[in-house]
Design brief:
The complex is a heterodimer of chains A (about 575) and B (about 150).
Chain A: H1 3-20, E1 24-31, E2 34-39, H2 44-55, E3 58-67, H3 68-71, E4 73-82, E5 87-96, E6 101-103, H4 113-122, E7 126-128, E8 177-181, E9 193-199, E10 202-209, H5 217-223, H6 230-234, H7 242-257, H8 263-291, H9 295-316, E11 325-326, E12 329-330, H10 339-361, H11 364-370, H12 378-383, H13 388-393, H14 400-403, H15 424-448, E13 467-474, E14 477-485, E15 491-497, H16 500-505, H17 507-511, H18 519-525, E16 535-539, E17 546-550, H19 551-564
Parallel strand pairs in A: 2-5, 6-7
Antiparallel strand pairs in A: 1-2, 3-4, 4-5, 8-9, 9-10, 11-12, 13-14, 14-15, 16-17
Chain B: H1 2-15, E1 37-39, H2 49-53, E2 59-63, E3 68-74, H3 83-87, E4 93-95, E5 110-116, E6 118-119, E7 126-127, H4 132-137, E8 142-143, H5 144-147
The structure holds iron/sulfur cluster (2 copies).
Chain lengths: ~575, ~150
C-alpha cells in the first residue's frame, strides 16, 4: 500500500476525530477501500461537513436501518466517496429507539436532500433541520406513522387506499403561475409529476412529486428472498441496466463475505456491462431525438441497437434480464461460439455510430434545440453530487470504473470522456464518445479474457453483520448497492441507489431560467429512469356524454376481465 | 445544415427496410432462448428440487396422500431464470422456445402434476424410493434406462 494512500487514511481519521470533538465511538476499516466511523449523532453534521470541506468527499447515499432486533436501536449511515483516493467513507450514528431524530446534513451537503427524506419515510428517523422534509417515497395516501422498512412491518401489508389524498405541494413564488407537467407526459415513458413555476415562458422554479413507481424491492430483498435469489430481482430494478444492478449487488455481497469472483467471471461481467452501455446509449440517443421530434434519429439508432440485443440473447438466452450473475461469479459462461459474431456486430455498430455522429454534428436544427439548453454549471453539479454523463458533461471528471475499479476495470482501463459546456449538447457528445470507448473496451476484454472457472465455490455460510459497499458505473451514472449481511441466508439490510436519484435532483437547477418547451429534453438529457392513476375519462362519441371512471371502478373492470377470461 | 441532412438521408436509405414479418411470418427464437417453462410428466419423479431453488416461488409441492405428491406450477410470475432446469436431475423441466405467453385466462399459465410416490414406513410421508438422494444419482429410474436423461 502506497504512502499516499496511508496519508489519505490518516487525513480522514484526523477529520473524523477533530470534527467529532471527542464523540467518535468507533473507527474500523472493513475493507482496504472502506473506512467506517461511528460517531455520536450530535457530531454527524460536523463530521460530514468536514469530510466535504477538507477532503472534497462526494456524498453517495444514506442508509436508515432498524436495528432493534440486533442492538435495540436504529442506525443512520451516510456513505461518501473520496474519488481520487479510491476510498469509501461511511459515517454512522446510532439512534436510540425512543428518540428518533438526527441532525439533517442537507444544510452542509445539499446532495443529501432526498436521501434524508427517504429514511425519514422508510424507518421513521426524523432529519432535524431539513429544508424540505415533505414525503418523498411513500404514496400520498400512506397512513402517518407506518414505516415500511422497519423490521416489524410485514412485507405484504397493504394499508387501505384513500382516493382523496393529495400530495403536499409547494406554493409558487409570488407573481409566477404554475404549469403542471405529468404525472403522465407524452414523451416520457414513466410517471413523474413536475410543477413548473413560470413567469411568461421563463421558468423561475419547480416542485416535483415522484416515486410513483416505487415497488418496495429493498423490503422484499431483506424479508423474503435469499442471497442467491436477489440478483434476479436486482436485475429487474431497471429495464435497461439490469445487469448493472445484479453485478453491483453481487459485488457488495462478495465484498461483505470476503468472496473473490474468478478472473474470468470479472472479465465477462465487464464485457456484459459494456454491451449494456452500448445499447443503452443508443437507446438514449433515439429517445433524445424523439423528444425533439426528430424521429429519424429514433428509428435509425434503434435499428443500429437491435443487433446488440440479439447478441445478448445469443449469449444468455434473453435480450434483457440476462440471469447470469450470482454471488461468487456467474451462472453461465460466455460461449466461445459468439465471439466472431460479437466482433462483427460491434464493428458494424461502430461504423454506423460514426456515420450518425457525423450526420448530427453539423445539424443546426439540433444545435438550436440543445446548445445552451439545460445548462448545469460544474459547481452546481458538484454540490448536488450529479453522476454519470451529466456530471462529465459539466466537467466533473468522475467515473466509477476509474475511481473504484471493479470487475476487470483494473486491467481494462477506460478513457474518461468529459465536456465543459454542461448543456444538453455536451451530454450528447459525452455519450457518443463513451459509445466508441465501450466498443473498444469489449474488444479489449475479449482479446485478453483468461480461461478458468466462472464461479467461486462458496463453502461457508455468509457471516452476519458484515458490510459491503459496491458501485458500478451504469450508462446513466453510478449505481450503488450497500449490503449489511444477516443471519438467515439473506441480507439484513440491502440498500440500492440508482444513478437517476441524484441526477433528478439537479433538474430544478438545470431548467431554471429556461423555456417550458426545453424542459422535456433537459429532463430527457439526464436519461431518467423512474421506476397511479386517479381516473380515466371516456367520451361516447355519439352522445358526447362524458363518463368518469374512478380508480376503484377501473380496478373492478380489469379484474372482472382477467377472471372471466375475456 | 444541408450536408448533414443529406448524410441523415443516406443513413436511412442505406438501411432500407428492416421490419420483420412477424406476426405474419414466423420468428422463432434461437436455440438457448429461455422461454415458457415446460415439464415432461413422464420424466418428473417428484423430488422437488425445482421447487427448492425457484426464487419466484412459482412451484409448489404438497404431499396430498401417502402415495401421491402434487406439484403445482404457476408460471404467471416465472422470472425465466432457468434455475429449475439447472437442478432437475431428470431433465424433466425445461425452458422452451415459446414466447407468446400472453393470455386472457390466467389458468393457461398453471399446471398440476400428480406423482405417485413411495410412502415412508415410519413417518408416512412421500419419498421417491429408495432414498431421495440415491434417486438423484440414478438414471431414469421410473422407466428403466431408456426413460430418463439424467
Ligand atoms: S425459470 Fe426460475 S422462476 Fe421460472 S419456474 Fe424455473 S426456477 Fe422458477
Ligand atoms: S426437479 Fe425435475 S424431477 Fe424434481 S420435481 Fe422438479 S421437475 Fe420433477
Amino acid at each position: 500500500m502506497s504512502t499516499e494512500h496511508e496519508r489519505t487514511l490518516a487525513a480522514v481519521h484526523q477529520v473524523a476525530a477533530e470534527r467529532s470533538n471527542g464523540s467518535l465511538l468507533c473507527a474500523t476499516q472493513p475493507h482496504s477501500d472502506t473506512l467506517h466511523f461511528v460517531v455520536d449523532r450530535s457530531a454527524m453534521r460536523a463530521v460530514t461537513g468536514g469530510l466535504v470541506d477538507h477532503l472534497g468527499a462526494r456524498f453517495l447515499i444514506s442508509v436508515g436501518t432498524d436495528r432493534r432486533p440486533l442492538s435495540g436501536d436504529f442506525g443512520v449511515l451516510h456513505i461518501f466517496s473520496l474519488d481520487r483516493d479510491h476510498l469509501y467513507v461511511l459515517v454512522e450514528s446510532p439512534i436510540p429507539a425512543d428518540d428518533l431524530r438526527i441532525d439533517s446534513i442537507t444544510p452542509v451537503v445539499p446532495g443529501a436532500a432526498w436521501a434524508e427524506r427517504e429514511f425519514q419515510d422508510a424507518v421513521g428517523v426524523r432529519a432535524e433541520g431539513h429544508p424540505d422534509p415533505r414525503r418523498l417515497l411513500l404514496p400520498d395516501d400512506w397512513p402517518e406513522g407506518l414505516y415500511p422498512l422497519r423490521r416489524d412491518f410485514p412485507y405484504n401489508f397493504r394499508p387501505p387506499a384513500d382516493d382523496a389524498a393529495r400530495p403536499k405541494l409547494a406554493g409558487a413564488p409570488a407573481g409566477a403561475s404554475v404549469f403542471p407537467m405529468g404525472p403522465f407526459f407524452p414523451v416520457l415513458e414513466e410517471p413523474s409529476y413536475w410543477r413548473l413555476f413560470v413567469e411568461g415562458e421563463r421558468i423561475v422554479g419547480c416542485d416535483t412529486r415522484l416515486f410513483y413507481n416505487h415497488r418496495g424491492i429493498e423490503k422484499l430483498g431483506d424479508s423474503v428472498l435469499t442471497y442467491s435469489a436477489i440478483p434476479h430481482l436486482a436485475e429487474r430494478i431497471c429495464g435497461i441496466c439490469g445487469f448493472i444492478h445484479s453485478t453491483c449487488y453481487c459485488q457488495a455481497v462478495e465484498k461483505a463475505a470476503g468472496i473473490e469472483a474468478p478472473r474470468r467471471a470479472r472479465y465477462i461481467r465487464t464485457i456484459m456491462l459494456e454491451l449494456e452501455r452500448i445499447h443503452s446509449h443508443l437507446l438514449w440517443l433515439g429517445i433524445a431525438g424523439h423528444i425533439l421530434g426528430f424521429e429519424t434519429v429514433l428509428m435509425q439508432t434503434w435499428r443500429i441497437r437491435e443487433p446488440v440485443m440479439w447478441l445478448c440473447e445469443a449469449i444468455c438466452g434473453n435480450r434483457k434480464t440476462y440471469g447470469m450473475n450470482t454471488v461468487g461469479g456467474l451462472r453461465r459462461d460466455l460461449p466461445d461460439s459468439v465471439r466472431p459474431e460479437l466482433l462483427r456486430v460491434l464493428a458494424e455498430v461502430e461504423k454506423e455510430v460514426v456515420a450518425v455522429r457525423e450526420a448530427v454534428a453539423g445539424d443546426s436544427a439540433l444545435h438550436a434545440r440543445t446548445q445552451g439548453v439545460g445548462t448545469l454549471s460544474e459547481e452546481t453539479a458538484r454540490s448536488i453530487c450529479v453522476v454519470g454523463p451529466p456530471a462529465r458533461a459539466s466537467g466533473v471528471a468522475i467515473d466509477a470504473r476509474i475511481d473504484h475499479p471493479y470487475a476487470a476495470y483494473d486491467e481494462i482501463r477506460p478513457r474518461i470522456v468529459t465536456e465543459e459546456a454542461g448543456d444538453v449538447w455536451a451530454r450528447v457528445v459525452v455519450r457518443l464518445g463513451e459509445l466508441a470507448e465501450s466498443i473498444r473496451l469489449v474488444g479489449e476484454g475479449l482479446s485478453s479474457i483468461p480461461d478458468g472457472p466462472v464461479c467461486a465455490e462458496i463453502k461457508d455460510e455468509i457471516p452476519p453483520g458484515k458490510i459491503g459497499v459496491s458501485v458500478v458505473e451504469a450508462p446513466r451514472g453510478e449505481a450503488i448497492h450497500f449490503v449489511l449481511t444477516g443471519g438467515d441466508n439473506r441480507p439484513y439490510r440491502w440498500r440500492v441507489r440508482a444513478p437517476t436519484y441524484p441526477n433528478l435532483q439537479a433538474l430544478p437547477a438545470a431548467i431554471r431560467d429556461g423555456n417550458i418547451a426545453d424542459t422535456p429534453i433537459t429532463l430527457g438529457s439526464l436519461d431518467p429512469c423512474f421506476s397511479c392513476t386517479e381516473r380515466v375519462e371516456t367520451i361516447d362519441r355519439r352522445t358526447k356524454a362524458v363518463r368518469v371512471f374512478s380508480r376503484a371502478e377501473l380496478l373492478k373492470m380489469c379484474r372482472a376481465r382477467a377472471k372471466g377470461g375475456g | 445544415m444541408l450536408v448533414s441532412k443529406v448524410r441523415e438521408a443516406l443513413i436511412c436509405l442505406k438501411a432500407g427496410r428492416v421490419t420483420l414479418g412477424y406476426p405474419f411470418a414466423p420468428n422463432d427464437p434461437k436455440p438457448g432462448f429461455r422461454g415458457k417453462v415446460t415439464v415432461d410428466p413422464d420424466l418428473c419423479f417428484g423430488c422437488g428440487g425445482c421447487a427448492n431453488v425457484c426464487e419466484a416461488g412459482v412451484i409448489v409441492v404438497s404431499d396430498r396422500e401417502q402415495h401421491y405428491r402434487l406439484l403445482e406450477f404457476f408460471w404467471g410470475r416465472c422470472t425465466y431464470c432457468a434455475r429449475c432446469e439447472e437442478v432437475c436431475p431428470e431433465g424433466a423441466i425445461r425452458l422452451s422456445g415459446q414466447f407468446e405467453t400472453a393470455t386472457d385466462d390466467a389458468r393457461d399459465l398453471c399446471m398440476r402434476l400428480e406423482v405417485f410416490m413411495g410412502p415412508c414406513q415410519r413417518c408416512g410421508r412421500c419419498f421417491p424410493p429408495p432414498t431421495p438422494l440415491d434417486k438423484m444419482m440414478t438414471t431414469g429410474f421410473r422407466h428403466g434406462l431408456e426413460g430418463g436423461r439424467a
